[in-house]
Design brief:
By secondary structure, the protein is α/β, with parallel strands linked by helices. It has one domain: 2-enoyl-CoA Hydratase, Chain A, domain 1. 41% of the residues lie in helices and 16% in strands. Strand 6, helix 4 and strand 7 form a beta-alpha-beta unit. Helix 2 runs parallel beside helix 3.
């Protein structure tokens, strides 16, 4: 009996391994499952694959999307798709916006921020969704910097009293090794074709002119941040500027200064979305009366099959190998980050 059980266990393991390898290395077909594309609706620069979320609700529903972790446009290096990563969230937002059965969208955010462009693309996706149906944000432990940027685009923002939010500001940083290298007799050698191509070189001091250039870059990005928050929250830009300055607030403090609308948890945010959906689409009141509209938690939509062969719609490209396997540090790569420091 023990020998028989061992054979079954070994067979299951072999099948799982085969499924993973088939998903990774099988040729891409022309069907919907394996179509890699760029989202043209939002002019996204995210190269992402089609995401499929199964749901028992084929009629009216409220779609709940979870954004978890750093916001960036890096490809997911995991074998299994992450439906809470910023790449996936962008596609789920576009899909929910297009789906006429989705009558409201709730976004659960738990993120300290991320890169500028990725945050802007998600902000625009929320703005576009808001034109067609209510969008409600519910903040978890933290929704700061880029996380708040995205939140500001919604109709309503819920935060817990202890949520960390705000941090409206832009930052970039690097380490300078010039003094240390001088002590040990090491010199950095750079051959360049432009005066500013090695701006931020850690092997030499930064010049006042270079600092001014970088400060101007960050100031412009910060101004974009303020403008978008002002537009999303319908608060004068001058008012936002006074309460921004990179300051971090608790949910309770943010409520007092107008950065969030309500103090409440995940379930209260969903209840509010139910209310907004019925106000926006009056026929839902007649159809559901006092009953709740079904909800779809998108990150729970993957099947067991998706887990093993979900990678079939992802392809291994030179860019992925370059970013994930051959990634090197470049001192000249300046990317402002909206992150808690």
């Amino acid at each position: 009996m023990k020998y028989y059980n061992k054979n079954i266990a070994a067979l299951i393991i072999i099948i799982c391994i085969i499924c993973i390898f088939v998903g990774l290395f099988s040729p891409k077909s022309n069907n919907k499952l394996s179509t890699s594309r760029y989202i043209t609706e939002s002019k996204s620069h995210f190269p992402i694959s089609s995401i499929h979320v199964s749901t028992p609700f084929k009629e009216e529903k409220i779609s709940i999307i979870k954004l978890d972790g750093i916001i960036n446009d890096s490809a997911n290096s995991s074998l299994f798709r992450d439906l809470t990563s910023s790449n996936s969230v962008l596609e789920l937002l576009v899909k929910a916006t297009k789906d006429q059965n989705v009558k409201a969208i709730v976004i659960r955010i738990n993120s300290p921020g991320g890169t500028v462009a990725a945050s802007q693309e998600l902000y625009k996706a929320v703005i576009n969704a808001r034109k067609k149906k209510p969008v409600v944000i519910t903040m978890g432990d933290i929704a700061a910097s880029g996380g708040y940027y995205i939140s500001s685009a919604a109709d309503t923002i819920f935060a817990n009293p202890g949520t960390l939010t705000g941090s409206i500001g832009v930052i970039t940083s690097y380490l300078n090794f010039y003094d240390l290298l001088n002590k040990i007799g090491v010199k950095g050698v750079v051959i360049k074709s432009g005066n500013y191509k090695d701006i931020g070189n850690p092997t030499r001091p930064m010049t006042p002119e270079e600092r001014k250039i970088l400060q101007t870059l960050l100031d412009d990005t910060y101004d974009q941040f303020l403008s978008d928050v002002s537009k999303g929250r319908n608060i004068p830009k001058s008012t936002i500027a006074k309460i921004a300055q990179g300051l971090i607030y608790t949910g309770k403090q943010a409520k007092k200064i107008g950065l969030v609308d309500y103090l409440g948890d995940y379930n209260q945010a969903i209840k509010h979305a139910q209310k907004l959906a019925k106000q926006r689409f009056p026929y839902l009141v007649r159809k559901f009366k006092k009953k709740d509209i079904p909800i779809e938690e998108t990150w729970k939509g993957g099947s067991i099959l998706d887990m093993f062969v979900g990678v079939i719609d992802r392809h291994i490209s030179p860019s992925v190998i370059d970013n994930k396997l051959l990634k090197t540090y470049s001192y000249s790569k300046y990317q402002p980050l909206w992150l808690l420091e």
